[in-house]
Amino acid sequence: MNETYAFIEAEKTTHGVAFLCRLLKVARSSFYAWLAAATNRSARKAADKALAHEITVIHVASRHTYGVPRIHAELRRLGRRVNRKRVARLMREHGIQGAHRRRRRSLTRPDKKAKPAPDLIGRDFHAETPGTKLVGDLTALPTGEGWLYLACWLDLATREVVGYSMAGHHRAELVVDALEMAAGRGRLQPGCIAHSDRGSEYTSSHFRRHISELGLRQSCGRTGSCFDNAAAESFWALLKEEIGTRVWPDRATARAEVFDFIETFYNRRRLRKHKAFGYLTPAETRQRHQHDLAA
Known about the structure:
Layout: H1 2-15, H2 17-24, H3 28-36, H4 38-61, H5 68-77, H6 84-93, E1 133-143, E2 146-155, E3 160-167, H7 172-185, E4 193-196, H8 200-203, H9 205-213, E5 217-220, H10 230-243, H11 251-266, E6 272-274, E7 278-280, H12 282-294
Parallel strand pairs: 1-4, 4-5
Antiparallel strand pairs: 1-2, 2-3, 6-7
Helix pairs in contact: 1-2, 5-6, 7-9
């Protein structure tokens, strides 16, 4: 119908509106109503174009990873009160999509002789206070020089990566270095739980000695159950999704990109929906907890 009204508008100076409406079997009142709304349509089109540009900028700044929920949340943080369905429509029309997660290879190699620590988490990946529950795990990134292994520790209260380490091996020293970093910057509370899988790196005497020296409590999930360490598994899936699964030319390049992702983007810029605070970055979530504690 819009095409019919547009044709009448284009030809009305030649044949007259009344004649064209009779010929095309449309009501003159409907044509004039469409004509009166033309200004509003033009304004909406311009507004959609401006909003689509903002969405594109946010999507690029998120490393092409944000989908509708986080882009909508980022717009609200910037003071833009816009309907979520409108954001979804514009993203669909412009072919803007969030990143999708992929499967990853498991590095868990349990030591059958070692006695694992009890599971103190019990799949409860929630913590009220930062520094009381950590989850850790290992992953491998392919490079032209061989695998680069990455160990991380996340604080469950904020989902902030408080400790990480990278090396060309995945011996116990790797997870110990990451834990020492977490202890140095994570403000861990006495008796903080450090939860992991039953990989040999975490059941080694070297790691357990450092757990004891730091005054932490070790916790291990069951063998072969990824759900017992789901929070750490989720972070690996997110990292692989958002930095991409590819082969880096060398370990130094992969190391630099992982450092940039964790320190520049994930901890300080990437929005996560907190059940009480709404959409915040991990660093902002930690600050909010500290503010509430001080209050």
